[in-house]
Amino acid sequence: MVRERTAELELAIEQMESADTIIDRWTLDGVIHYMNDFGLQTLGYSAEEVVGRRSIYSIVPDDPERLAEWFAVRDQLEANPHRNVHSELQCKHKDGSPVWIAFRNRPILDADDRIVEVFSVGIDITDRRLRESRLAADNRRMVDELAIGREIQLSMLPDGAPEFPMHDEFTVRALLEPAREVGGDFYDFFLIDDRHLCVCVGDVSDKGVPAALFMAVTKTLIVSRGSNDTCPASILRHVNDELCRRNDQSMFVTIFIGVLDTQTGTLRFSNAGHNPPIVRRADGNLDVLDPRHGPVAGVVEGFDYRSDEAVLHPGDQLVMYTDGVTEAMDPDNVAFGDDRLLAVLGGPVPDPTTTVEVLFDAVTAHAGERDAFDDVTILVLAFHGQGRLPSAGCELILDHDRAAIAGALDRLEQWMAERDTPDEDRRALLTVADDLLTNAIEHADGSAPVVTTLAITDGWLEFTVSDEGSPFNPFEVEVPDTDAPLEDRRAGGLGIHLARSLMDRHEYDRTSGRNVVRVSRKINGAGGAEQ
Predict the structure, then answer these.
(1) Residues in contact with 104: Cβ distance below 8 Å, sequence separation at least 6, in sequence order
(2) Which has the closest alpha carbon to 262: 320, 191, 200?
(3) Which one of 136, 453, 507, 531 is at 20 to 30 Å from 466 when CA atoms are compared?
(4) Is residue 444 a contact partner of residue 491, using CB atoms and an 8 Å limit?
(5) Is the predicted pLDDT of residue 393 greater than 80, yes or no?
(6) How confident is the model over 84-96, as pLDDT tens digits?
(7) Helix 126-156 with 208-226: angle, nearest 10 deg
(8) At 180, is the pLDDT very low, low, confident or very high (cuts 50, 70, 90)?
(9) β-strands 450-457, 394-398: how paired?
């Protein structure tokens, strides 16, 4: 019986000898009884180096992991000798390089069903395995890079539980859970000045890396424009125009921007195609801010967005979110929806942290085991009522550009007006500030910014300008003779003369490599105390 089966195999081998197929016969102890010429050529050996020897001394790699794979094939054959065993094994070329072969192993049995030999037919799959290995390495690198991208993206977002030590009028809490490693949702909040807080939520049309990049650009544009603009419609117009000019991929983003007057509770808002936020009133009622003021951003350049107003009362919360909340699907393809959202937000109003957590938990429970399709973003702004005006002063940082002075003066005037500073004192301070800032920007060395602060302390307006210019005390400049004819007057010095005339105190210091000029005026004072 064994001889008959062996003869059949030998006949089959002769018929297959010309094929590009590796053929060998071997025993369970690993001795190779036969290998065809193609197999020998593929592995680089002569017949004398292989036939009659244990494969462990020739074609089997000297590696514990690879040896275990070969032994596993033998164990499977012994466990069920009536079944063919398929395997993909790494072999060793004579030059030491790896050769991957896919084997089909057929046992040859004696009359007692014991394995006498194993007949194997194999094909060289080295190229395929190398491609798979490179692909696996590329995938690992991509996963690592996406993980880094996720960290970078999330690091661009402000802390979801921020502290505003000088403001007890409001609390902000936020959460963003990307559906993939990186996504297109974003949120942000920042103080435009001592009185106005900007909050925004957005959702880019795409997913993955392109959406993350578009999100980063959008968020940067909002912060850049919003740093000195309290009109949400104006911020949105600027962002939309900039996105339209640099949008070769035809992407777009929905955005909701709100600016809260923290002293009055007035919320000015503008919505570019985003989900309508909900005002959660202290008494449990819900108001949906459903006006939309224009299309999504990044599509129609020059669009004139509008804005609306709502009033937050003490105890109210503004709940903002992206469509990853309402469009979250359960295993039966049922969306979370607006009705569930309103049901979760109805009833007694907890603290903003609990609002975020309860809403997110509700969305997660609804989705169950189903993977999230879209990012989930929630931002809650709680208004507590008028607090205290910050005792800290107003600080501005100006680049070396005279065009920045006008905006700085507007900001200083607004800051003084909010503190009911008399008109005469405001005008005097702004006149002096204009001259000091112009001198600093025109004459300071290097690219370091000019820093200016304005504060009210014990009834005094105190204004400071510092720069990294060469040491220079402007108050040592000779006072010009204002009675002399114009053609006889020495150039310069008029600005310092104004500072001396309009301010009550003035001083110069050189600190940490910076010129520091400080002038003060007694509010409602006559000025000129130090001529």
Answers:
(1) 84, 85, 86, 120, 121, 122
(2) 191
(3) 531
(4) no
(5) no
(6) 999 999 999 999 9
(7) 20
(8) low
(9) antiparallel
Q: Do 168 and 214 form a contact (C-beta atoms < 8 A)?
A: no
Topology adopted by domain 2-124:
Beta-Lactamase (3.30.450)
Quote the pTM value.
0.55
Distances in Å between the alpha carbon of 9 and those of 15, 34, 82, 351, 527?
Answer: 10, 12, 16, 81, 115
Domain ranges of the chain: 2-124, 157-383, 394-522
In the chain, what percentage of residues exceed pLDDT 90? 51
Topology classification of domain 157-383: Phosphatase 2c; domain 1 (3.60.40)
Least confident of 194-198, 203-207, 228-232: 203-207
Q: Does the CA dihedral 205-207-210-212 come out positive or negative?
A: positive
- Contact call for residues 461 and 523 (beta carbons, < 8 A): yes
Q: DSSP state, 23?
A: E
Are 439 and 494 contacting, i.e. CB atoms less than 8 angstroms apart? no
- Please provide the distance, in angstroms rounded to a whole number, between the alpha carbons at the two ends of the chain: 126
pLDDT digits (tens, 9 = 90+) for 257-271: 999 999 889 999 999
Cα–Cα distance measured from residue 301 to residue 246, given in angstroms and rounded to the nearest whole number = 11
The reported pLDDT for the residue numbered 447 is 58
Longest dimension (CA), the chain: 133
Tokens linked to 453 = 């602060």
Residue 480's pLDDT band (boundaries 50, 70, 90)? low
The per-residue pLDDT for range 401-453, each reduced to its tens digit, is 788 888 889 889 988 888 888 999 999 999 999 988 888 887 766 556 788 88
CA angle 150, 277, 238 (to 5 degrees): 70
Rounded to the nearest 10°, the torsion over CA 360, 362, 366, 371 is 20
Q: Give the whole-number percent of the chain exceeding pLDDT 70.
A: 86
- 99, 207, 79, 78: which is closest to 153 by C-alpha? 207
CA distances from 487 to 482, 494, 527 (A): 11, 15, 29
- Nearest to 265, CA basis, from 295, 299, 309: 309
Residue whose tokens read 């004696």: 110
Q: Would you state the pLDDT for residue 495?
A: 64
Q: What is the 3-state secondary structure (H, E, C) of 495-511?
A: HHHHHHHHCCEEEEEEE
Q: Does domain 394-522 have CATH number 3.30.565.10?
A: yes
Amino acid identity of residue 9, one-letter, is: L
Q: Which of 216-225, 299-308, 481-490 has the lowest average pLDDT?
A: 481-490
d(CA 96, CA 60): 10
